[in-house]
Amino acid sequence: MKNLRETHPNWTVPNLLSVIRILVIAPFAMFFLQGDILWAVLMLAISGLSDCFDGMIARKFNQVTELGKMLDPLADKLTQGTVAVCLAVEYPILIPVLSIFVAKELLMLVAACVLLKRKKRPSAAKWYGKVGTILFYFSAGAVVVMEGILQMHNTLSLTISYCLLGITALFMLYALFQYARLFLSTLHSDREQDELDLMRELHAGKDKK
């Protein structure tokens, strides 16, 4: 009898962690907007930890899948977009900086959809994307802690917030530039390794039964 991994190749721990990141988005937004900052930070911590470990587990235990390559950046984008919107609602003065995050994630989602429609392989998360994500989590967490938990409503906390989010925004713009280069390269590529029929890949496990 074939084991579960053979018959359902997309049922992996890394993919489950990516799904968990997506599922905690709604509780984070609810807790944050209701003022339950500690619970919101806990949801953000769960999301951040799962993001740190899913790629490592996938590579170490050979659980890299095409679905996982889609879920990981999707979870990142949905999480970052939600956090940015929540922060903008709570702290309107940060909207100019936070809008960069939302614009970047929307552009990358559109690019991925275009590549999939053309049966091209969207780029997996790169180191600069991961660093940008880590900076985002750190900056967002710092803002929430200072403003929500420590109640630091002063010039110092605002200056720190702007500096952290400004650095994060600059790095994300750099990441967007690098991903744009990959997008254009893949879009016009004739290499076999850049081809991807996602539906066929997702149903590959059923064909093995």
Task: Give structural notes.
The chain is mainly α. The chain has one domain (4-201): CDP-alcohol phosphotransferase transmembrane (TM) domain (Four Helix Bundle (Hemerythrin (Met), subunit A), Up-down Bundle). Helices cover 78% and strands 0% of the residues. It is built from ten helices and no strands. It has helices at 4-7, 13-23, 25-34, 37-60, 66-90, 95-117, 127-149, 155-187, 198-202, 204-207. The longest helix is centred in the last third of the chain and has 33 residues, at 155-187. The chain is globular and about 55 Å long.
Mean pLDDT: 79
Order of helices and strands: HHHHHHHHHH
Q: State the share of residues found in helices, binned by percent.
A: over 70%
Uncertain ranges: none
Number of strands: 0
Structural class: mainly alpha
